[in-house]
Amino acid sequence: MKLYLDSNVFISLVREEIDGNLNILFNDAELFLSVCSKKNFTLILSFLFFREIEKSIFLGRKDVIDFIKSNYKVTIKVFNEEKDYSPEVERIIKETGIHLSDALHIAIALDSKADLIISWNKKDFVKAIKLINCLTPKEFIDESP
């Protein structure tokens, strides 16, 4: 199974985040990565993922990959296609009403042949369920095949 990872999952892990409902996001992110490792799932990390990580927590691509591989032994596929996604993004926005950055994530996830998007912001992707499903790390753990 190939899982497109939203940057907010990695950020919550590194920052040891807890949400407003006292859910321990970093623990669920850690469990999610452990499940991926045990079941030999592939994480798809895009150029947009790395751009958001660098902007938010100032870690470079190599540091992120090294961190994940050394701590979780998970298979990673770096999807470097920085092509013009404009036509696909415009179509997704038109069909779903999703805003630009999330439409770009969806376009990349579809292009990389991901089976699911994993994000803490599931609500941002609900309108695109006909294109690709999105689960939180917790939901993925609970529903993991």
Fold blueprint:
Layout: E1 2-5, H1 7-15, H2 25-38, E2 42-46, H3 47-57, H4 61-72, E3 75-79, H5 86-96, H6 100-111, E4 116-118, H7 122-125, E5 133-135, H8 137-143
Parallel strand pairs: 1-2, 1-4, 2-3, 4-5
Helix pairs in contact: 1-2, 1-3, 2-8, 5-6
Question: Which labels suit this protein?
Answer:
Rossmann fold, 5 strands, 145 residues, single chain, alpha/beta, 14% strand, 55% helix
Q: How would you describe what is shown here?
A:
This protein has about 140 residues and is an alpha/beta fold. The protein has a single domain (about 1-145), classed as 5'-nuclease (Rossmann fold, 3-Layer(aba) Sandwich), CATH 3.40.50. It is about 55% helix and about 15% strand. The protein has eight helices and five strands; from the N terminus they run βααβααβααβαβα. A five-stranded parallel beta sheet has the order 3-2-1-4-5. Helix 1 crosses helix 2, helix 2 packs across helix 8 and helix 5 crosses helix 6. The radius of gyration is 14 Å and the shape is globular.
Shape: globular
Number of strands: 5
CATH class: Alpha Beta
Which sheet architecture does the biggest sheet show? Answer: 5 strands, parallel
Order of helices and strands: EHHEHHEHHEHEH
The radius of gyration is 14 Å
CATH topology description: Rossmann fold
Mean pLDDT: 93
Low-confidence stretches: none
Shape-level CATH architecture:
3-Layer(aba) Sandwich
Fraction in helix: 55-70%
Summarize the structure.
By secondary structure, this protein is of the alpha/beta class. The chain has helices at about 5-15, 25-40, 45-55, 60-70, 85-95, 100-110, 120-125, 135-145, and strands at about 1-5, 40-45, 75-80, 115-120, 135.
